[in-house]
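ok here's Acyl-CoA thioesterase 2:
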Amino acid sequence: MLDPVSSLLAAVDLTDTGARTNEDIFTGTTEWSPRGRLFGGQVLAQSITAAMRTVDDDRIVHSMHGYFLRPGAIDVPITFAVDRIHDGRSFSTRRTQAYQDGQPILSMIASFQVSDDGLDHQIEMPSVPQPEDLPSAADVLGGIDHPVAQFWATRRAFDMRHAPSPVYLQVEGEQVAHQAVWFKALQPMPDDPNLHRAALAYASDYTILESILRRHGVAWVTPGLKMASLDHAMWWHRFARVDDWLLYVQESPSASGGRGLSMGRIYDREGRLIASVAQEGMVRVPAP
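and the structure:
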């Protein structure tokens, strides 16, 4: 079995089938998970990578908007069809559809831009404990004899450290609709900037809905809890490597009707705002 980072790299190393009809066709492998369902961040990263393969090297992804249409399976290859919607003087637009067994599981539109100068400002990074002062998922879950706990502790490609504390087993302290998570790849990654952008999308799906759980005192181990990502939007502002520590600041402005919305901001350790994220998810908690 590949180590977690090698597994991520293998998943985003898509095969170009050479097919050229109205779309560019790529194929990709899947990563194992203990529940048999694909991790949404993997399909996001692969779909972005497929779109990147169809634009000039000087055009950098700056935004994507995707809908998760069906659960993906870990034992079925994925086909990615990229529609070259538009190429302008500065911007290019691509639509990627991900399929398993002929059925779409993700539909995404991404935009790319030639590097340009312009106005520059950002929301400042909040002050939180440093990652060296926080326990990792392996520290919290490593001693628990459960397949999901062991997978989260040892088989994910990123070291993740919650501030103030994780919500895996319980929700400690005040029930607030915000949290922060430090994360970085467990091993050094290749220098390809597009790979780091795709991997950032991959990691952005891990914890984004947890601010909803924290607000209501619901831990991941709550019996009967059902959660699923419905859509995902991301904006890349500045470049950063995912094998350096990044801070993911998350908050949920609303939850209702069995759905919750979460917003996120990703900073590097120097306080530069790297990306912004938004996701709505299905969140169903059994009645007491």
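+1. The chain is about 20% helix and 40% strand.
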